[in-house]
């Protein structure tokens, strides 16, 4: 896989659907370490939604109420103790968020060595998306989001680490960034791009399907326990071309 064309265009301008202007370039190892939490935002959001589902489902509420009633009866506590059954799911929600985050992120192959994994000598690439300096009105424009390409085999890569800060969502940033990543990967010699997402990230699914990704498989992973993960794939033959 060649990197010559990419090396010649390390920073390029993107224009989003709403006219927002961005700059996309490779991140340094230092920047990757500083901004890795943005790249992991999809996991944070999915874990939060999963925790909400578990904490608010009727099975959890029933179990909390039953345990509170048994505790009040066993230790002859006031009926007010039954309120613990109603409050327990709220407390459980925060614990679940932390637990799911710890379980999922520690299973990621790049978590413990994020800068080395993405910014080393290998074929993996991590990009930062910055607000254009003219838009930002400052010398060091803020980071808007991230996206990465993971090398899988000879002609296949995987789209990963797509994260956009909440303040910049709704402009079509994800769409523009994914399109540019597909172009970069096609120009480097990749023929196919894969990705994994979940039904909890419908906004991301909509972007991928607009870009021509087709669902090819479904599986579960210990990274997101109990959540079906959809495998998508797209041909990059039509994505190659000049980096305008």
From TrEMBL:
Residues 98-234 form the N-acetyltransferase domain. Coiled coil: none annotated. The chain crosses the membrane at residues 79-103. PROSITE patterns: GNAT. Pfam families: Acetyltransf_1. One of its GO terms (molecular function) is N-acetyltransferase activity. This is N-acetyltransferase domain-containing protein. It comes from Macrostomum lignano.
């Amino acid at each position: 896989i060649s990197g010559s064309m990419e090396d010649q265009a390390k920073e390029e301008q993107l224009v989003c659907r709403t006219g927002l202007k961005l700059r996309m370039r490779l991140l340094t190892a230092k920047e990757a370490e500083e901004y890795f939490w943005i790249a992991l935002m999809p996991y944070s959001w999915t874990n939060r939604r999963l925790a909400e589902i578990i904490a608010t489902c009727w099975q959890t509420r029933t179990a909390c109420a039953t345990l509170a009633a048994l505790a009040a009866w066993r230790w002859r506590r006031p009926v007010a103790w039954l309120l613990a059954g109603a409050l327990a799911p709220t407390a459980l929600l925060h614990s679940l968020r932390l637990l799911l985050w710890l379980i999922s992120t520690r299973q990621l192959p790049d978590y413990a060595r994020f800068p080395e994994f993405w910014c080393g000598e290998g074929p993996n690439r991590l990009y930062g998306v910055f607000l254009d300096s003219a838009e930002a009105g400052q010398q060091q424009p803020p980071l808007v989001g991230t996206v990465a390409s993971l090398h899988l085999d000879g002609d296949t890569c995987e789209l990963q680490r797509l994260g956009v800060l909440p303040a910049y969502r709704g402009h079509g940033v994800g769409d523009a960034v994914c399109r540019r990543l597909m172009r970069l990967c096609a120009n480097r010699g990749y023929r196919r791009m894969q990705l994994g997402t979940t039904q909890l990230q419908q906004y991301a699914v909509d972007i991928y399907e607009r870009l021509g990704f087709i669902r090819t498989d479904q599986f579960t992973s210990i990274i997101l326990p109990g959540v079906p993960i959809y495998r998508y794939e797209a041909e990059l033959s039509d994505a190659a071309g000049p980096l305008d």
